[in-house]
Amino acid sequence: MADTDNNTTTKKKTVRRKRSAGNGRAVYIVDGSRTPQLKSRNKPGPFHAAELAIGCGRPLLARQPFAPEAFDEVIMGCVMPGPNEVNIGRVIGLRLGCGKQTPGWTVQRNCASGMQALDCAAKNISSGRADLVLAGGVEAMSHAPVLLSTAMVAWLGAWMSAKTLPLRLKTLGQLRPAHFKPIIGLLRGLTDPVVGLSMGQTAENLAYRFNISREEMDAYAVRSHQRLAAAVEAGYLDEIEALYDTRGQVYTEDDGMRADSSVEKLAKLRPVFDRPFGAVTAGNSAQVTDGAAMLILASEAAVKEHGLTVRGEIKDCQWAGLEPAQMGLGPVHAITPLLKKKRLKLEDIDYWEINEAFAAQVIGCLRAWEDRDYCREELGLKSAFGSLDQERLNIDGGGISLGHPVGASGARIVLHLLSVLERKQAKRGIASLCIGGGQGGAMLIERTTT
């Protein structure tokens, strides 16, 4: 028996060593799922972040032909994990039954954290360090922390240090109403500390730079809701797994969709970020939501070992930096070099998912590619890069209609893009996001047709 075990182990190592040869192994997407995206309604939502991830992870793993312990690692993107979820990737791995021997870790790249998790998993598989990885992203934005000010923390420290009644009375006399003013973590997280602008203000910058009107933004927002409504009606969002809360309530759909949205209704909303003259409103911005998305990535060796069905392949990923005050143009700065590296043009991509942080941001990206001066000065091109066909962009809606849980969106758009490619019998797609702080990320995937 011992000789047989040794021979088997040697054989497996030989196979894996052979597959690891070359410039990098192929990285396959074999399955994935997500939760409904639940709109924040000014109070903590029904699920914490880990519960969201487990809600979509359990049915995903239950339908696999391998045990959860087969994963080499679990990687999750999350911007604001709760106090009991600090390394939420590890928490999720353990609660999903991946076993104590399976490492779990968490990545944070603001809005693209979920895509960063996929990129990390892909690199580990490509290099031969892993064969089977559970990766994705999660965010419970409704549970974003409310913090104490530095002054209040200092006062509490003094109070704890006061051991006698006179010292406590003296310390109590130093307490002021201003000490109780809370710091809203969500608002701080959506504000760039370097340039001092909120993400909405950076969208206003793009509207001004590219002369994007309020009417254009609202029309884009209405289209996002209409496309999502059509996708729901047609049953195109089958990647969603139902969630059940402790009261027995079930959540099956993204609940921020407004099928009756219209330009006339949106025109009544006031600007949020540049009052009273701005054009960016709650109606043409992404919704604050809770949600999770998870994908299973595998090497060729893992596909053969477990008899997995390959849905697609991650071909490449590109990250870029740019001026934080113009952060919404991040997709342009990430996609352009990615296409140039692959010797592709805009028209060579069958379908696109560009995360809808703001209508002005998506429109600004399209305008930037068509702007000769921008392409020359900012992208180093000789001429305008081209026009993107909007009939192939976010065809089932996006962040404006279904929300943008910042840690999860990067994984969600990759998962849904793959579903679109399958539905349309298309080959190639790009998912991309702008990233707070002045960055962009883009991932090129191809549907497996054999």
Identify low-pLDDT runs: 1-22
Instruction: Tell me, rounded to a whole number, the average pLDDT.
Output: 93
Question: In CATH, what is the class of one domain?
Answer: Alpha Beta
Number of strands: 16
Radius of gyration: 24 Å
CATH evolutionary superfamily of one domain: Thiolase/Chalcone synthase
- Percent helix range: 25-40%
Q: Give the overall silhouette.
A: globular
Distance between the termini: 39 Å
Strand content: 15-25%
Q: Judging by the overall fold, what is the CATH architecture of one domain?
A: 3-Layer(aba) Sandwich
Biggest sheet details: 10 strands, mixed
Report the CATH topology name of one domain.
Peroxisomal Thiolase, Chain A, domain 1
Number of helices: 16
What structural class do you assign from the helix and strand content? alpha+beta
Characterization of this structure:
With 450 residues, the chain is of the alpha+beta class. It has a domain at 197-236 and 315-444: Peroxisomal Thiolase, Chain A, domain 1 (3-Layer(aba) Sandwich), CATH 3.40.47.10. The protein has helices at 2-19, 49-62, 88-95, 113-127, 150-161, 165-173, 185-189, 199-209, 214-234, 263-266, 300-306, 330-341, 359-370, 372-379, 399-402, 409-423, and strands at residues 28-34, 38-39, 73-77, 104-107, 132-140, 146-147, 183-184, 191-192, 197-198, 243-244, 250-251, 289-298, 312-321, 351-354, 428-435, 439-447. Strands 1, 2, 3, 4, 5, 12, 13, 14, 15 and 16 form a 10-stranded mixed sheet that branches. A two-stranded antiparallel ribbon has the order 6-7. α2 packs across α3 (88-95), α4 packs across α16 and α8 packs parallel to α13 (359-370). It is globular. The model is unreliable at 1-22 (pLDDT under 50).
